């Protein structure tokens, strides 16, 4: 089925200095009144410059926790996240996050263009440059016709486009997306997937895209990292050797797409049943909590 | 046409009530209830002229200062307390205590502390009218959406910029509800503060008329108070419509779904 060089157990790492984003032994334990909850056990992987990587995992596998740790919104219990070799201790300037809840992430009291402009204004970008960045970003997501609308006057898909425009205008090196299309309908979703591929190609930004949708992860990604069920480790890290030019109909009907889909699906099923990759299993056995 | 319609809606009930009043006092007014014509005449005689400057305007000025003071202090203090969980836990019981005190009982105390002057009267208005603004601001700030907070954080919007661009706008609907209450409490306290050891102002004048059995004059003073209340309410609604345009639109969309 899947050629052996495609997938590796555990996350891929790059030689030192080559990675843009490095996650090293990341662990996150929530301390609650009902006891400790280990959301993420031990995650290690790298993202190279300009990569588009998707993270899939069964629900409750700590995907959002991982993303928030990478974004500097949550502190890790142990391990670290490095951006350009610098340890992430708070939200870095070179990162932008697109949240799943677009309706709550956009500020309803600001018009579309003002929402996109706010982070730039706050960063002290001069007015003329700001205007250009906002116009270009809205253009890139196909929303140049509604700058004066309020977000809540737009459809869900358009609202998420505004959120993407806001992230793009911020000119991040890394774009983190937390199940951004989970709440939009299937057709809008396909459009937004193509939009992300276009924006990624045009801007050369590095994208980490979290999703629970297997097809989406394969369609979008150059690489897919499959997470195990909680407590989370990397189940498998596979290269998606589909042609770089993706098309909703063509790509999805390729035999290779189906193969990859089968493979990822099987891995996730295994993950759900508690299967863990060899390395993690030994760690688990020798290091019982 | 639309304007004409809304004006007629505003005026319909007042006109009916005045007609009823005319009819009820046709057979000759009682000593305690003047006819509309008498009242109108007295109103103009009493308030258009010197009293406008000795009583009405000073009262309105104190009211405006008191209400603005209550809003500014309430919002500032509310932001400080609302954004800090510890501060909230410490201050909330104390705030409940002070809020429960009827402000008029503070008048003698404030007279001693501040003296018998305009400052005292403004202090009385602030001490009573600040609570709805303060408590609503705290509540509005506390209830901010965590996703909005994460958005601000991830885009490096912090400190004063965060207050200006995120916290304050997000709490505005709750704060405006507090300000609405603040206005009516302010008007009540303006009158009451002038009933104690005072020599001018609307409250003083009305009490003065009561004591000297100047019944139509007393009624006309009450009408002045009512008119001030109506004007305040119109100004407030005008501002609220502008400030909360986004919020009303958002609610409309949410209700339509």
Explained architecture:
- Chain A: This is ABC transporter.
- Chain A: GO terms for molecular function: ATP binding; ATP hydrolysis activity.
- Chain A: InterPro entries: AAA+_ATPase (IPR003593), ABC_transporter-like_ATP-bd (IPR003439), ABC_transporter-like_CS (IPR017871), ABC_transporter_ATP-bind (IPR050166), P-loop_NTPase (IPR027417).
- Chain A: Keywords: ATP-binding, Nucleotide-binding, Transport.
- Chain A: Residues 21-254 form the ABC transporter domain.
- The complex is a heterodimer of chains A (289) and B (257).
- Chain A is an alpha/beta fold and 289 residues long.
- Chain A folds into two domains: 48-74 and 87-93 and 171-274, P-loop containing nucleotide triphosphate hydrolases (Rossmann fold), CATH 3.40.50.300; 102-170, no CATH class.
- In chain A, 36% of the residues lie in helices and 25% in strands.
- In chain A, strands 1, 2, 3, 4, 5, 6, 7, 8, 9, 10 and 11 form an eleven-stranded mixed beta sheet that branches.
- In chain A, strand 10 (223-227) and strand 11 form a beta hairpin.
- In chain A, helix 4 packs across helix 5 and helix 7 packs across helix 8.
- The two termini of chain A are 36 Å apart.
- Chain B is an all-alpha fold and 257 residues long.
- Chain B has one domain (36-256): MetI-like (MetI-like fold, Orthogonal Bundle).
- In chain B, helix 2 packs across helix 10 (215-243).
- The two termini of chain B are 31 Å apart.
- The chains are: A alpha/beta (289), B mainly alpha (257).
- Chain A binds chain B through residues 68, 71-73, 90-91, 93, 95-97, 99, 101, 104-105, 107-110, 118-119, 122-123, 150, 152-153, 166, 170, and chain B through 145, 147-148, 150-151, 153-157, 161, 165-166, 169-170, 172, 246-247, 249-250, 253-254.
């Amino acid at each position: 089925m899947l050629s052996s060089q495609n997938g590796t157990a555990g996350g891929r790492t790059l030689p030192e200095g080559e990675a843009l984003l490095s996650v090293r032994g990341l662990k996150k334990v929530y301390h609650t009144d009902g006891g400790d909850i280990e959301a993420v056990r031990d995650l290690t992987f790298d993202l190279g410059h300009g990569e588009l990587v998707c993270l899939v995992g069964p629900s409750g596998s700590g995907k959002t926790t991982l993303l928030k740790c990478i974004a500097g919104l949550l502190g890790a219990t142990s391990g670290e996240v490095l951006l350009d070799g610098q340890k992430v201790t708070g939200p870095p300037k070179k990162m932008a996050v697109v949240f799943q809840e677009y309706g709550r992430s956009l500020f309803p009291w600001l018009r579309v263009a003002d929402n996109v402009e706010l982070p730039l204004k706050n960063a002290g970008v001069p007015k003329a440059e700001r205007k250009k960045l906002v116009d270009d970003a809205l253009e890139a997501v196909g929303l140049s016709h509604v700058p004066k609308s309020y977000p809540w006057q737009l459809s869900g898909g358009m609202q998420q486009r505004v959120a993407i425009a806001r992230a793009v205008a911020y000119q991040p090196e890394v774009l983190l997306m937390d199940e951004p299309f989970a709440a939009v309908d299937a057709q809008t979703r396909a459009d937004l997937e193509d939009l992300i591929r276009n924006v990624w190609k045009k801007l050369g930004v590095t994208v980490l895209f979290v999703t629970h949708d297997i097809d989406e992860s394969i369609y979008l990604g150059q690489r897919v990292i499959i997470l195990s069920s909680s407590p989370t480790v990397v189940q498998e890290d596979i290269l998606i050797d589909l042609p770089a030019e993706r098309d909703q109909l063509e790509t999805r009907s390729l035999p290779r797409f189906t193969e990859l889909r089968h493979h990822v699906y099987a891995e996730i099923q295994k993950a759900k049943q508690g299967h863990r990759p060899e390395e993690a299993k030994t760690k688990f056995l020798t290091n019982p909590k | 046409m639309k304007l004409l319609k809304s004006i007629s809606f505003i005026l319909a009930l007042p006109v009916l009530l005045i007609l009823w009043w005319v009819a009820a006092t046709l057979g000759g007014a009682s000593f305690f209830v003047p006819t509309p014509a008498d009242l109108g005449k007295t109103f103009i005689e009493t308030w258009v002229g010197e009293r406008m400057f000795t009583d009405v305007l000073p009262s309105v000025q104190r009211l405006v200062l008191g209400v603005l003071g209550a809003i500014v202090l309430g919002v500032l203090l509310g932001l400080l307390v609302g954004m800090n969980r510890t501060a909230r836990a410490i201050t909330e019981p104390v705030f409940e205590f002070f809020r429960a005190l009827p402000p008029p009982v503070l008048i003698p105390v404030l007279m001693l502390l501040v003296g018998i002057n305009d400052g005292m009267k403004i202090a009385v208005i602030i001490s009573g009218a600040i609570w709805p603004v303060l408590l609503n601001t705290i509540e509005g700030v506390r209830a901010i959406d965590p996703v909005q907070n994460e958005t601000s954080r991830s885009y490096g919007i912090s400190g004063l910029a965060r207050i200006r661009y995120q916290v304050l706008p997000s709490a505005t609907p709750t704060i405006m509800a507090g300000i609405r209450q603040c206005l009516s409490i302010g008007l009540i306290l303006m009158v009451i503060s002038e009933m104690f050891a005072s020599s001018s102002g609307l409250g003083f004048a009305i009490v003065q008329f009561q004591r000297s059995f100047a019944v139509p004059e007393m009624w006309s003073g009450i009408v002045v108070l009512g008119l001030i209340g109506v004007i305040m309410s119109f100004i407030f609604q005008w501002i609220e419509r502008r400030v909360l345009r986004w919020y009303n639109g958002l609610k409309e969309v949410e209700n339509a779904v």
